[in-house]
Design goal:
By secondary structure, the chain is of the alpha+beta class. It contains 2 helices and 4 strands; from the N terminus they run αββαββ.
């Protein structure tokens, strides 16, 4: 899978709230350019909030990729159940 296909899958799984399908235990995920999250369990904790999101709209604004490295800039809009 190339980097652009990975971003497409990432987007699909995010929309479907299924982070387990795209990440594995050895992954390195950057929430922001300054916040790195290592390991599936830590990513699950960070992404727990997506379960509460309703009417979620995720748009990919920018994709830059080379080999196994990808930079993708997403925009997220949602309604929160707790409000």
């Amino acid at each position: 899978m190339n980097s652009f296909e990975w971003v497409d899958k990432f987007h699909e799984y995010w929309q479907n709230k299924n982070i387990n399908a795209i990440f594995d235990e050895n992954c390195e995920y950057w929430e922001t350019p300054f916040k790195r999250i290592n390991g599936l369990e830590n990513i699950r904790k960070q992404w727990f909030a997506i379960i509460k999101m309703e009417n979620m709209r995720v748009s990919c604004l920018t994709i830059v990729g080379q080999n196994e490295h990808v930079f993708a800039n997403f925009e997220l809009e949602f309604d929160n159940r707790s409000q």
